Write a sequence for this structure.
């Protein structure tokens, strides 16, 4: 039997050795326990700060991000309110005529063609050889984000075009549109192309990560870095902005997994598999919920059959023909029902980019890009998921040896790196149709998925 439900317990007092200990030993142990508690509390507080910063960005407000001596005012392009832009512009003008800047991910820079304008000023080590989006061959490509200083005449209503989500940006974005997109932007900017700032800083990278965590398009507008003493405000008006550091952002993924709680569970009979149980886990930091679906009575003393399934509203619930997610979900449940197993249903829509961005990527696919390049056009990596939460869910269920239902070698590598013993990979697939064939082949050819497309059943549609 898997581990039964145990309500989360508050942390207790340190447990000391049973033998009689001297005063000095007890004092040292108490101090060590106190230090560990202080470290955990500091990490937890960092998670709270990141959560609040994410909330501010989603609401279109500015946050203050620091890294060492660097201070930035940061806004997410997707949600930026007019008042926030005015504040940035006014603050920049008051600081010796500086201008706001835009930071884009390496993926967005490459897809848009800004690479050609910025590769020369990137720091050594930030340039590599990658194929441009949707094209064969290779040319220099940024593997680091780029930052562009906006010209004085810039119209803030065009920020979305820089991020790939504006009205004008929808006019292009096909397989070889990078150069034309840069030309179009130059026209929108009144013939004054934005100028590269130079090497993107740690604070700018952290700002991009905050927008990813908010499930927003990873593109930010910032006030140019200023030199200030740690904790000092740029001016009195900025004291009201929520403050977060790049260290807080870097620590956040680990804190998400540590914050996971097993909250509730109940029998949920499924069609054809009545002996099923849902166990809900909640990330108290990120406020996300994941479900372990235990089918049958798997024996944790033996390798347990497991499926890691990232949520897909369109495929899982509405049977979208654009992907094979729904077919894989239903097929996995049937396979698990044969001898018992566990399906982890993870809140990672669209390979971690969120539903809104997945639908934007669909629009780019209809313009000619494949599923990976469509995500990169919006500034995302090919896969934004993190399976640390899945590892903790498995361990909470008492599972550390598994047979994994997957075609994705990256899942196997992530689980093994975290100490889960994957003793066997079992492939899984669904029908191929005219809407998902390119998607399935792209996963095989570009993401390394182990799929024999020719062996999959063909699904015919009318019309």
């Amino acid at each position: 039997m898997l581990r039964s439900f145990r309500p989360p317990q508050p942390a207790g007092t340190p447990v000391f050795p049973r033998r009689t200990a001297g005063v000095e030993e007890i004092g040292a142990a108490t101090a060590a326990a106190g230090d560990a508690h202080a470290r955990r509390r500091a990490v937890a507080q960092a998670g709270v700060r990141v959560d609040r910063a994410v909330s501010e960005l989603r609401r279109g407000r500015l946050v203050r991000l620091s890294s060492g001596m660097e201070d930035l005012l940061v806004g997410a392009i997707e949600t930026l309110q007019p008042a926030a832009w005015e504040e940035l512009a006014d603050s920049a003008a008051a600081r010796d005529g500086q201008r706001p800047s835009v930071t884009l991910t390496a993926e967005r820079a490459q897809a848009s063609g800004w690479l050609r304008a910025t590769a020369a000023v990137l720091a050594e080590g930030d340039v590599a050889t990658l194929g441009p989006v949707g094209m064969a061959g290779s040319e220099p490509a940024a593997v680091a984000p780029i930052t562009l200083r906006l010209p004085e005449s810039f119209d803030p209503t065009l920020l979305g075009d820089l991020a790939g989500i504006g009205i004008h940006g929808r006019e292009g974005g096909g397989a070889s549109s990078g150069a034309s997109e840069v030309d179009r932007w130059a026209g929108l900017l009144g013939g004054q192309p934005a100028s590269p700032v130079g090497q993107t800083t740690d604070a700018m990278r952290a700002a991009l990560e905050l927008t990813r965590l908010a499930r927003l398009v990873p593109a930010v507008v910032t006030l140019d870095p200023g030199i200030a003493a740690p904790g000092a405000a740029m001016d009195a008006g900025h004291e009201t902005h929520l403050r977060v550091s790049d260290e807080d952002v870097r620590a956040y993924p680990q804190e998400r997994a540590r914050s996971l709680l097993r909250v509730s569970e109940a029998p949920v009979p499924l069609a054809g598999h009545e002996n099923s149980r849902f166990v809900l886990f909640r990330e108290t930091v990120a406020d996300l919920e994941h479900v372990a679906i235990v089918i049958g009575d798997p024996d944790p003393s033996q390798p347990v059959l497991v499926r890691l399934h990232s949520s897909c509203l369109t495929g899982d619930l509405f049977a979208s023909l654009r992907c094979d997610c729904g077919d894989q979900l239903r097929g996995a449940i049937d396979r698990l029902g044969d001898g018992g197993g566990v399906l982890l249903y993870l809140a990672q829509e669209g390979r971690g980019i969120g539903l809104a961005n997945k639908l934007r990527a669909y629009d780019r696919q209809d313009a000619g890009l494949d599923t990976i390049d469509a995500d990169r056009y919006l500034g995302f990596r090919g896969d934004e998921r993190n399976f640390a939460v899945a590892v903790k869910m498995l361990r909470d269920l008492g599972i550390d040896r598994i047979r994994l239902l997957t075609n994705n070698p990256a899942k196997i590598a992530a689980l093994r790196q975290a100490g889960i013993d994957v003793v066997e990979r079992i492939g899984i697939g669904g029908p191929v149709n005219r809407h998902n064939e390119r998607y399935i082949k792209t996963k095989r050819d570009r993401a390394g998925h182990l799929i024999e497309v020719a062996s999959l059943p063909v699904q015919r549609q009318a019309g």
